[in-house]
Amino acid sequence: MKSIKRRWTLLPGKDITELDKKVMYWENKGKEVPTRDLIKTPEQIEGIKRAGVINTGVLDEVAKHIKAGMNTLEIDKICYDYCTAHGAIPACLNYEGYPKSVCTSINEVVCHGIPKEEDVLEEGDIINVDFTTILDGYYADASRMFIIGKTTPEKEQLVRVAKECLEIGAEAAKPYCFVGDIGYAIEQHANKYNYGVVRDLCGHGVGLKFHEKPDITHYGKKGTGMLLVPGMVFTIEPMINMGTWQVFLDSEDPFGWEIISGDELPSAQWEHTFVMTEHGVEILTY
Predict the structure, then answer these.
(1) Sequence ranges of the binding site
(2) I want to staple 267 with a disulfide (CB 3.0 to 4.6 A). Which of 110, 137, 156, 256 is the partner?
């Protein structure tokens, strides 16, 4: 009989645990399961939590100062200064050629908006500020939406529903569920408003690297994708478009990063880093 090449490996000289049994049960049924290196140790989770505290502080500092009339380069400086003053490193800075410390995505910019002096916030804008912190080699990643002054009811609803999608996705993330369960829950909620859930970008494992496995898609079918087990750390970060789910790369961006909604209608996104526990996910960033 041909042997099966297993993703999940048992620890040499150790007894089989309940975790081993549950993961092997699903692997035997042909499901995609994590490799053992995706399971963070308690010490690693504590390190990611510490990075998360600083990451939350960065976004709190932005919240104190963000307003109409400021440009996004000023937001970048706030983020860089707070992060480095607390002994951490902005993960985005120089990551694969990205030139700044934070992503600032205004209105129809879905994600990866590059801070610029000429991008001045105006009354009614909505903006996503996305920051990732490295502290002592550990990564934490989160983003928030900000409404500048008073905006339209349509944009207010989009921002609110995008946050609800994150919360609903987190609620669907149970131990020994699948990535597709998260995406299914998010997509069902967005569909109630005829919003598009971006498919070309996704959440991801995080903690020891900026981007790890698994990819956390925000659409899909229940019972599909990788099995999620206690000790895994990942982001959920649905990008919700007011219109089509499709996107395109801004041809005028010389760095090749900025992503625009396909019909150039507004987009909104919220993101947290989570650790899976025996009882559900715990938020490591706010």
Answers:
(1) 112, 130, 141, 204, 211, 237, 271
(2) 110
Structure tokens at 127: 């903006």
Binding-site members for substrate are 112, 211
Note the pLDDT tens digit of each residue in 139-148. Answer: 999 999 999 9
Q: Per-residue DSSP letters for the chain?
A: -PPP--SS-PPTT-PPPHHHHHHHHHHHTT-----GGGS--HHHHHHHHHHHHHHHHHHHHHHHH--TT-BHHHHHHHHHHHHHHTT-EETTTTGGG--SSSEEEETTEEE-PPP-TT-B--TT-EEEEEEEEEETTEEEEEEEEEE-SS--HHHHHHHHHHHHHHHHHHHH--TTEEHHHHHHHHHHHHHTTTPEEP-S--EEE-SSSSSEEEEE-SS--TT-S-EE-TT-EEEE--EEESS-S-EEE-TT-TTS--EEETT---EEE-BEEEEEETTEEEES--
- The answer, yes or no, to whether residue 130 has pLDDT greater than 50, is yes
Q: What is the SS3 assignment for 151-176?
A: CCHHHHHHHHHHHHHHHHHHHHCCCC
- Confidence label for 1 from pLDDT (cuts 50, 70 and 90): very low
Whether this model's pTM surpasses 0.85 = yes
Return the pLDDT at 6.
82
Binding site residue list for a divalent metal cation: 130, 141, 204, 237, 271
pLDDT, one tens digit per residue, over 244-279 is: 999 999 999 999 999 999 999 999 999 999 999 999
